[in-house]
Amino acid sequence: MTLFSLASKNIKGNFSNYLVYFVSLVFSIVIYYTFVSLQYSEKIQESMELSDTMSFMFMVSAVILILFVAVFILYSNSFFTRQRKKEVGLYSMLGLPKKTIGKMLFYENLIMGLIALVIGVLLGTLLSKLFSMILVNLMGSTAEIDFGISIQAIIQTVIVFMVIILFTSIQGYRLIYRFKLIELFHAAKQGEQEPKASLVSTVLAVILLAGSYWLILRPFPAEFNFDYLIKNYGVALIGLIIGTHLFFRSVTVYLLKLSKRNKSRYYKGTRLIETSQLLHRIKGNARTFTVIALLSAATISFFGATYSGYYGNEKNAKEVVPFSYAHLSKGEEFDTKVKSIIEDDKNHPIKAQLEISVIKVKGELLFQLDYELNPIKVISATTFNQVSKALDREQTVTLSENQAVVIQPRFTEYTESKFKGKEMTLNLPQGNRNLTFVNMVEGNVLPFDFPDFYVVVSDDTFVELDKQKEAITYKAYEVEGEKTTEATSKKLAKFIGGDFQTSSSFYIEYKEGKEGNALMLFILGFLGLVFLAATGSIIYFKQLTEANEAKGNYKILRKIGVSKKDIRKSINKQTFFVFGLPLTVGILHGSIILNFTTNFISDLIGANIIVPIVTAMAAFVIIYLGYYVLTVNTYNKIVNK
Does the pTM of the predicted model rise above 0.85? Predict the structure, then answer.
């Protein structure tokens, strides 16, 4: 029998143990192949406004995936090697040299990797059209996707994963030389000692986590800058990482030991067994729990934020570009040409057309407001009411003399009480003019142009201001079916130019926003699934290793009268703790980070994050629940035969 055939037999004999690792590896290869094939897909790129961005995003995500999968494979191999120490020791007892045993393990890992690579590439090729259709559907594109095989994607996937597989195979070969024969046979007997509860570490963990949460949730300063970002959120991130590790290493130990003091509860049923098992294993699991909790938090928060952006893209586009088309008036000939281009689109007839006169003037508020004002944009009450009617809005204003209304600046959460009854001064060539705010209204009139401070005044006041500071005029058009005006929007953009302050199109803003969010949602969704599969597999491997080491303990329990049913219940509770604890911490961290993200990214300010965050959390819980059931059943089979 050759070493290659012996390695093949070993894989068949141990395949049930390798199955979860094998499936996770195949899934990772499928996702990587998908990213690469989409990166090279010309049809998808031709249908996108952000084709260059798409290529870059898929390239970056593919690199992140490679790094994560490489670490996951190395991590998994260390578990398999530990689990098979006794088997390797037996080979040494039979006279096989370490070099030969190392070659056998090298062949095993290589064969497993090659099989996974072949299956992954085949599945990726078969599923590439499905994944392409998912992306196209998310982007709202009408591109026709045909089934095709990307030779470039196949070559790149094979090269990348062959390097990873060869590296991990060599690592497995070298690992044999690190152990003595006696260590191999006594590996399973080297149990972990019960950790000591450190009150200092426990208190420090609580302080670090509470402090990190406070730093993340504190309001943004008036003058936000990069230094503040580093000092505030950099410190919060470091505190969150260290605090999370100390939480699993010390706080959980402290709480478990505290539960032992309740003697009536501790000695009831199998609680003594469960608490003792968890205490002895918590130290070895602390690092794994930390990685899983932080990875879950990052995935939940980023996916939730992206989904929020995708979920509210149309609303955001309408806030940034209220009208279907708007442009700065540049004379009769220019304006007539623009109008003719819009009128030529018979599929999208004009519903409303109006002129918006704006006076840009410097001024100051006679109260404190953390917002850049100048230049202040002033419009008349009649213009605001015309805009409201054209855009089917209900809010209108009626003003007289020195009364004024402020339009809520975009991406702020100011309320009416912030302005009502307060005064401002406009600096004019012939003297200052004081105005009193009587209300704050919602509803922007022109495309976003920072600073975004619009003030509505009475018609008489506007006429007086216009005599001292000449107004500029914008032409605005609202058409039917503005989400499908691709041809006209591109034609106008080509004629007018790319300056958004001169001209804007709702379709371009809506389409680019939807494509950008769809790309991020697609990438983070699949990366999140890979992370979930990998972290779920890591917990599974951990529990599998612990089950094999604890077989003798459970055998003793059965001999002293503990039923198989009670042992099963005990396994359920222990495994639930192992899966539930890092997931709960990850969800809590993710919620805090998501709250920060939605207040930091302007497009998400005021966005509804309930549906996105519930969706992200539900996906995590459901997938982890599947791993939990699988782990419980496998653990029970090992120790409760």
Answer: no
